[in-house]
Specification:
Distance between the termini: 47 Å
CATH class of the largest domain: Alpha Beta
Order of helices and strands: EHEHEEEEHEHEEEEHEHHHHHHH
Oligomer: single chain
Mean pLDDT: 95
Largest sheet: 8 strands, mixed
Radius of gyration: 19 Å
Number of strands: 12
CATH superfamily of the largest domain: NAD(P)-binding Rossmann-like Domain
Shape: globular
Amino acid sequence: MKIAVMGAGALGCYYGGRLLQAGRDVSFVARGAHLEALKREGLRIESPLGDAHLRKIKATSDPGEIGPVDMVFFLVKLYDTEDAAHAMSPLLGPETAVVSFQNGIDGWQRIGSLIGEERVIGGLAVIPADIKAPGVVRHNGPFAKLVFGEFDGRTSERCQALAETLDVDGIEALLVDNIDVRIWEKLVILSALSAITTLTRLPIGAILAEERSRALFRAAIDETHAVGRAACPALGENVADKSFAFAEKMPWHMRASMLDDLERGKRLELDDLSGAVVRIGKAHGVPTPVHAMVQAALSPYRNGQAASAG
């Protein structure tokens, strides 16, 4: 299987790097200093699951240099979805499938509206990772999971082939028949983690150690769960409890990538995380005061460094 990683940031490079390490045919679409480092020095992965230095790596800013592939791993930030979906057209052959491993809830639909929903496989990535330096991915936890499946619940040949391709060291791959539910399950925890760690500029351990911030974090989880239950009735009744229990087991230093983006002056996925909870909540008559407050408080930073911050 020939794979292209569209959006080779921390997650794309980790998963693509593990596949490359196992001998899979993988190309990376990246940009900026990170791309230059990949081309010059290769990809380094620092991970509790094993370090790696992949010196020979196919990386480019131009998908046309790669050409049609069997599978595209789509890992761009949500605010770049439409631009990236247009840009990846050279990667698409007659049978090419695109797996959206983005955050949020509707990235796959936005991709599908431009390239055809029949091409898109649903997915989610569960991994704590960031770009330590250009060309260097730092994996910060003991888990690196990819969950994926067809939105109609069937077990397709292309998903079976993908499961076999992902059977490598350093990746836990799970093919499921309820990917819509799994995406909502992730949003329940991710929206709260992104909202409250970014709002407070603190890791999860410090938030959970203080009674009032702990309660705020739990309220953010409960809001997204309530919205999810309204929008996706198959979402389980105990997902909020499981999400909070999962957060309590996170390493003390765990924080959302949105906090990293805030501190680096980058654009935020604010409107696609807390903003999506607020938007979908309004559509279903579910109140979301915590996420609405977070969206309002962080709105000066949504497009990068706030003007008043210098």
